[in-house]
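[step 3/7] inverse_fold.run input=structure_tokens len=372
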């Protein structure tokens, strides 16, 4: 498998940003929840803030807040004002956690970031005090809303110039509206009764649910917080960021089917079990003849799948050529992103960090294939 031509030191530049600013982001989040616990009048509120704080600080990549900081510093943002930007970045991480909570409830997932999904944490805590067998989901849904309000509180208090904060908020609202539409589209195509031949539904889900809020909008937020206002530069950011975000999701599609739990932090074959319309599934349906397609779709769309059926689905995904095609699609998007990065007016350090983000997505596909 051909590797990207990215120097080792560049591959580490994104990690250098993450290593420098992730602790500051986490410290900001930790201090915020400590303050919230002290401010509320009732014990159950303190308990939930305690759990939310631990959940938001679980080990993670912090990609979105780090992207915002790369955009801010890369476009000439003042380091003397970085405290306010870190606060806004921490609000993005809270919103990411908000979305993860919802996603795990929708997907009936059991694990997140190496630990129990939040609705199961709440089920363990409150299951003995309520006869409602969905108490964990009910509490988690509303606790996610609490996280949303926390993000807004952080933004309101952040020491950032009002006119820049106003631009940030406009992008903030667009980000999570777009992501919500992506989640709805994903839900409408999970365990579907029919999948139209061809089409680009999987691509649209990936763009709306992942690419915009993972890379494009965080970079754009950083740009406007640094005072950027060029429509041409915003377009160039889009042309590099969306392929980056799409590659990120393509990689996740493969990991969700062929990845190792120890590396991904989530159960293997989760996308197959959940019946997700991923790029792998869309390519498979295009490649199969009618008889094979009916067999595959019957297996894939079943709400309950045995281990033997899951193994057969994985085998079909590989033998149909879909896995190879999605890997090649990933490489094309990485190439587009790399070419787009070179056109940006950001400084050399920021460009190197973005290339480093791409380099960190290299796919050890041969390792996965050998384990199928």
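[step 3/7] decode complete -> sequence:
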């Amino acid at each position: 498998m051909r590797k990207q031509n990215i120097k080792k030191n560049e591959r580490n530049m994104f990690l250098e940003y993450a290593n420098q600013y992730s602790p500051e982001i986490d410290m900001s989040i930790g201090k915020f929840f400590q303050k919230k616990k002290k401010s509320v009048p009732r014990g159950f509120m303190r308990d939930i803030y305690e759990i939310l704080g631990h959940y938001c600080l679980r080990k993670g990549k912090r990609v979105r807040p780090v992207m915002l900081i790369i955009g801010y510093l890369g476009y000439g943002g003042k380091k003397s004002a970085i405290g306010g930007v870190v606060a806004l970045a921490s609000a993005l991480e809270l919103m990411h956690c908000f979305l993860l909570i919802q996603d795990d409830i929708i997907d009936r997932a059991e694990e997140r970031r190496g630990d129990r999904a939040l609705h199961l944490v709440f089920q363990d805590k409150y299951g003995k005090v309520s006869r409602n067998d969905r108490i964990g989901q009910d509490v988690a849904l509303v606790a996610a809303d609490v996280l949303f309000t926390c993000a807004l509180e952080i933004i309101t208090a952040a020491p950032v110039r009002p006119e820049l904060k106003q631009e940030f908020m406009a992008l903030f609202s667009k980000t999570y509206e777009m992501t919500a539409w992506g989640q709805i589209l994903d839900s409408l195509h999970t365990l579907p009764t029919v999948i139209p031949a061809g089409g680009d539904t999987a691509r649209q889900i990936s763009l709306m649910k992942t690419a915009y809020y993972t890379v494009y909008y965080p970079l754009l937020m950083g740009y406007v917080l640094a005072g950027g206002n060029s429509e041409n530069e915003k377009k160039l950011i889009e042309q590099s960021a969306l392929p980056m975000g799409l590659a990120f999701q393509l990689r996740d599609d493969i990991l969700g089917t062929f990845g190792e739990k120890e590396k991904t932090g989530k159960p293997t074959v989760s996308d197959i079990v959940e019946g997700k319309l991923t790029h792998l599934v869309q390519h498979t349906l295009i490649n199969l003849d009618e008889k094979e397609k009916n067999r595959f779709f019957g297996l894939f769309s079943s709400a309950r799948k045995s281990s033997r059926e899951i193994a057969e689905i994985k085998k079909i995904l590989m033998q149909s050529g879909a896995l190879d095609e999605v890997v090649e699609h990933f490489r094309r998007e990485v190439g587009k992103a790399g070419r787009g990065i070179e056109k940006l007016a950001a400084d050399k350090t920021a460009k190197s960090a973005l290339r480093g983000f791409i380099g960190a997505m290299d796919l050890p596909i041969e390792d996965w294939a050998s384990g199928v």
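[step 4/7] annotate
Residues 8-39 form the longest helix (32 residues).
Confidence is low (pLDDT under 50) at residues 1-5, 365-372.
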